[in-house]
Amino acid sequence: MNQPFFIVDAFTRVAFGGNPAAVCLLEEQVSRKWMQDIAAETCLSETAFVERGKDSTFGLRWFTPLCEVDLCGHATLASALVLWTEGMVHDSQSIDFETKSGCLTASRVDDGIALEFPSIPSYPVEVPAHLQDALGVDMHWVGSAGDDLLVEVDKPASVRDLQPDFSKLSIVKTRRGIIVTAKGDTNGDADFVSRFFAPRFGINEDPVTGSAHCALGPYWAVKLGKEHLKGHQLSARGGEVGVIVGAEGVSLIGEAAMVMKGALQ
């Protein structure tokens, strides 16, 4: 078995920023267990497995170190960059990924790569047990956003300075993770900031979470009265995600940098 393998930093202009994703181009059939073992070995927040389809259509699956997930933005961005860079798809062509979340399209745009993703609505819920203690911050609003909890706090500095108790956060009832967000930016021109925590999936903090912006974009679009937004994720590595909120979905816009190329033996 000799499968081409790459590491790409997504939602960043330069290497060693943004969110690293592993991308494996499958040249033969493999088992789900093998994919999960590879994801555990890389120990990145997501490892993407890309299977050739027809023309510019590809199968795409994502795995954390602990499990398979239904939607991942940064590893989709990374997969698109690999396919264009390796000449499997011409730069001028868009790419259709067949996934557990339906068909997701990636295309080249002036600002980088645009991903056409589903829009995720948010609605208020009762504050789950242990959430306040786990985050240790006053919460202005708590809602459900697909598989995640969405928490708005008072200011960007409160997001930046969060020091969650991950042992407590891991027992908060949510299907995936917790998004914490606030209006404005700490040192830039973003419309909103965020951080993303998913200790139940083996990811205490994700550096930049494209899929979370499927909920963050629509949430802040309503509150700010604008459809074109810029998000700044305030992890240690940091990253920027452009969001265009449409009637039927969102466009996530970001850049990516190739860091490593090799093969899985």
What does this structure look like?
- With 265 residues, this protein is α+β, with helices and mostly antiparallel strands.
- It folds into 2 domains: 3-116 and 252-264, Roll (Diaminopimelate Epimerase, Chain A, domain 1); 122-247, Diaminopimelate Epimerase, Chain A, domain 1 (Roll), CATH 3.10.310.10.
- 19% of the residues lie in helices and 40% in strands.
- It has an 18-stranded mixed β-sheet that branches.
- It is globular.
Short note summarizing the structure:
This protein has helices at residues 32-42, 73-85, 131-135, 156-160, 166-169, 213-224, and strands at residues 3-10, 19-26, 47-52, 57-63, 68-69, 95-99, 102-109, 112-117, 122-124, 141-145, 148-152, 178-183, 192-198, 203-206, 228-233, 239-245, 250-254, 256-264. The chain is of the alpha+beta class and 265 residues long.
Which range best describes the helical content: under 10%, 10-25%, 25-40%, 40-55%, 55-70% or over 70%?
10-25%
CATH architecture of the largest domain: Roll
Helix count?
A: 6
Radius of gyration: 18 Å
Tell me, what's the shape? globular
SS content category: alpha+beta
Distance between the termini: 6 Å
Q: Residue-averaged pLDDT, rounded? A: 95
Uncertain runs: none
What's the story with the biggest beta sheet? 18 strands, mixed
Share of β-strand residues? 35-45%
DSSP strand count? 18
Q: Say what the CATH topology of the largest domain is.
A: Diaminopimelate Epimerase, Chain A, domain 1
SSE string, helix = H, strand = E? Answer: EEHEEEHEEEEHEEHHEEEHEEEE
Total discrete domains: 2
Fourth CATH level, the homologous superfamily of the largest domain: Diaminopimelate Epimerase, Chain A, domain 1
